[in-house]
Design a protein that fits this description.
The protein is an alpha+beta fold. Helix content is 35%, strand content 15%. It contains 27 helices and 26 strands. An eleven-stranded mixed β-sheet has the order 8-7-9-10-3-11-18-17-12-13-15, sandwiched between helices.
């Protein structure tokens, strides 16, 4: 054998001889037969895991709740408005961006109400720190909590668990708002601006030990976040996960840049698939989901909105430009997702497209869809018989939510599955001539219609199935396969055994009395006939009571009573709100105020046994009387064999206080309106030549008084004094004196 000992290489002739001998040996008769080299197997997809969606929350343009969002979709409402004044004055920046620097000729957007609203004390955050937090962090925390409650779980039930958080979020430019107002940099300025701190704050607050990550892949961020959550559960990185996205528009830089790039439509209407498509309109919103492994969700009797059958993520690689889509990569993305899902392409009846509404982007996405389904059909040795898969885009209703675009589309699909209805994709009277759907399984949903279930090739009715696409303008893509949840045999079997005619214990709690009354009103609104029209099923009284018992955190201000019907529940709540409750049947308490009375019971070593006796004998009034005073009690002991179901129910009514660093112009207006106020707690500099002094005037109606009542009087909390001192030292080096007028 000829070999180069320095390099270890053999000659070409020797290599050919070796291969010839190898071929001869492979085909020799039995006895001298040698096995060929083992073929390297193709890489298999990660083990498939069906994931249940058990909790959901969101706020979108012109929709503060999920119910309002569905109503807008059902009513075919366009939710785009002119840029509100609390963001910036669009008229000052209006102009031709090609002729004038830092100008934009786009004045439209999809904006949410109360982007600066927050309840910091609920989350243990000081008002000053809240003001320095990016609004995306505040929305993220609020809506993860609401998704948790919507699933019917209390915060304490998740404490210490291996729960992950994956959220599409990024930098909004709020730091520039701070800069324009000359706000001093403080110790928690950095934590308020870093996108990673948003999910980290909530993991800290809930004491969760799973992964806690921000995801930023531009327009695909929130759908990639869902995919990452699924991967983490598949790899046993977490047992369940909160996933979603949040997007806010706080400064005009994005409008200016994107209009310079020719990406935005001048008329503010996203016309996906239309022959009039001329760009997209920016929007903002937040959406969160609580995910759990399907088997675990069914075993725990969870309410399940839908099931995620498969997901995939990729990048387009080299294309015509950085921001140009790659149809080949998009088709490969879809093929991988549907192969992983293991579903027949003939059973997919809706695709929520990325659908930005650009003249060339929409046809490219359609071509990718057609290529993918052509391959999937070929693998099933099938042909398209008729168009069976509708196409739509939520961007035609609320605009392009960028970091939260994917989660908005996913929530739309979940709601369509829930109501078994496909809503109209707006602004598409005539389809783009570059989009050819002939011979494909696709059609554009140009009219709202019932979402009919399809049949498999054997004639069996299958669950409604859909896909959701989200493509980042930097090339990062994601796709999910969603399926209607129909396997409720375990849940229905358990629920049918629960007696429907026995009285139930209703418990409600909040941070203070004002929030408790607001909570009672929320529950009444949830049970109102008009509200029930937005939900397929009327909730059962037993499920309402059970969810309030085990699915809500027990807070300081408490209310408890016993009712036998939904109407009685609403009537009792109404009398409580009006302050006319019957003290004989309604139990009220505050764990701080009743601490001394409770200590007498807590000192009794036989108290646990006494409670067990009360439960056994059905003495629920005594139990409620202790619970409102602060007794810890496991409500599951009331449902040892016949448990009702956790259901989607009205969630906590957070305080809506605005926390926002105002820009220079807005700051001057704010000072003019509110006098010489220097800080929410430090209003006026009243120093003279003899001493340095600051004064503050409070009405007593401020939120920090409402939650601090001593012997019937509202008293300024000690933490407020510390915040006043800190603010003053930062501004002028003054030392606090205990002087204020209220």
């Amino acid at each position: 054998m000829t070999q180069d000992y320095k390099t270890g290489k053999i000659s070409r002739q020797v290599a050919e001889n070796m291969m010839n001998r190898l071929r001869e040996n492979i085909h020799k008769p039995n006895g001298t037969h040698r096995k060929p080299f083992k073929k390297i197997p193709e890489r298999k997809e990660r083990g498939k895991l069906d994931v249940a969606i058990i909790g959901m929350s969101g706020r979108f343009p012109m929709a503060n709740t999920i119910d309002e969002f569905w109503k807008n979709l059902k009513d075919e409402k366009d939710c785009i408005i002119e840029i509100p004044k609390d963001r910036w004055d669009w008229e000052e920046l209006y102009g031709d961006p090609q002729k004038e620097p830092n100008k934009t000729n786009v004045k439209w957007g999809g904006f949410i109400d109360g982007v600066g609203d927050f309840d910091p004390l609920f989350f243990g955050i000081s008002p000053r720190e809240a003001e320095l937090m990016d609004p995306q962090q505040r929305l993220l925390m609020t809506y993860i909590w609401l998704a948790l409650e919507d699933a019917g779980y209390s915060a304490s039930s998740l404490s210490g668990t291996n729960t992950g958080i994956f959220v599409g979020t990024g930098s909004t430019g709020y730091v520039d708002v701070m800069g324009s107002s000359n706000t001093a940099v403080e110790g928690y300025s950095s934590t308020g601006m870093l996108p990673s701190v948003g999910p980290n704050r909530m993991s800290y607050f809930l004491n969760l030990h799973g992964p806690s990550e921000p995801i930023e892949t531009a327009c695909s961020s929130s759908l990639v976040a869902v995919h990452r959550g699924i991967l983490a559960m598949e790899a046993e990185g977490c047992d369940q996960a909160f996933v979603g996205g949040v997007n806010t528009i706080t400064i005009p830089a994005g409008h200016i840049s994107f209009s310079n790039a020719g990406m935005l439509c001048l008329d503010g209407r996203c016309k996906t698939f239309s022959n009039k498509a001329n760009g997209y309109v920016r929007g903002e919103g937040v959406g969160m989901l609580f995910l759990k492994k399907r088997e675990a969700a069914e075993a725990d009797g969870d309410h399940i909105y839908a099931v995620i059958r498969g997901s995939s993520e990729n990048h387009g690689g080299r294309a015509n430009s950085l921001t140009a889509p790659n149809p080949k990569a998009q088709s490969e993305l879809l093929i991988r997702a549907y192969r992983k899902a293991g579903v027949d392409p003939r059973t997919i009846s809706y695709i929520e497209a990325h659908g930005t509404g650009t003249a060339l982007g929409d046809p490219i996405e359609i071509n990718g869809l057609k290529t993918a389904f052509r391959t999937l059909y070929r693998e099933k040795e099938a042909q398209v018989q008729e168009a069976h898969c509708g196409l739509g885009s939520v961007k035609t209703n609320i605009g392009h939510l960028e970091l939260a675009a994917g989660i908005a589309g996913l929530i739309k699909v979940i709601l369509q599955l829930k109501h078994k209805r496909l809503v109209k994709s707006l602004h598409c009277d005539e389809i783009n001539p570059y989009i050819d759907l002939k011979g494909s399984p696709f059609y554009v949903v140009q009219q709202s219609q019932a979402w009919k279930a399809l049949q498999d090739p054997n004639g069996n009715t299958v669950p409604r199935r859909a896909g959701v696409s989200s493509f980042g303008f930097g090339g990062a893509n994601a796709h999910l396969v969603i399926e209607e949840y129909l396997d409720e045999s375990k849940v229905q079997g358990r629920r049918s055994k629960v007696p429907v005619d026995r009285p139930v214990l209703i418990v409600l709690s909040a941070k203070n009395e004002d929030r408790l009354r607001a909570y009672a009103q929320h529950l009444i609104d949830y049970l109102h006939p008009l509200a029930l029209d937005l939900r397929p099923l009327t909730p059962r009284l037993q499920d309402v009571a059970y969810t309030l018992q085990v699915g809500r955190e027990a807070m300081e201000e408490r209310l408890g009573f016993i009712v036998s019907s939904i109407n009685e529940l609403k009537e009792t709540l109404q009398t409580f709100i009006q302050g006319k409750e019957d003290t004989k049947n309604v139990y009220r308490g505050n764990i701080r105020r009743d601490r001394k009375a409770l200590s007498i019971f807590a000192a009794d070593k036989d108290m646990a046994k006494i409670i067990d006796v009360w439960v056994h004998k059905g003495k629920y009034s005594k139990l409620l009387d202790l619970w409102v005073k602060g007794v810890e009690f496991d409500w599951n002991t009331l449902h040892t064999e016949k448990k009702p179901q956790r259901i989607s129910l009205s969630t906590y009514p957070f305080e809506k206080e605005r926390y926002w660093i105002e820009g220079n112009a807005d700051c001057e207006m704010r000072i003019a309106e509110r006098g010489k106020e220097l800080h929410p707690l430090v209003h006026e500099n009243t120093s003279d030549f003899e001493e340095q002094r600051f004064s503050s005037t409070f009405t007593g109606d401020e939120f920090f008084f409402a939650d601090h009542v001593i012997q019937g009087r509202r008293v300024l909390p000690g933490m407020a004094y510390l915040e006043m001192a800190k603010s003053g030292r930062r501004k002028d080096g003054w030392s606090l004196r205990r002087e204020y007028s209220a």
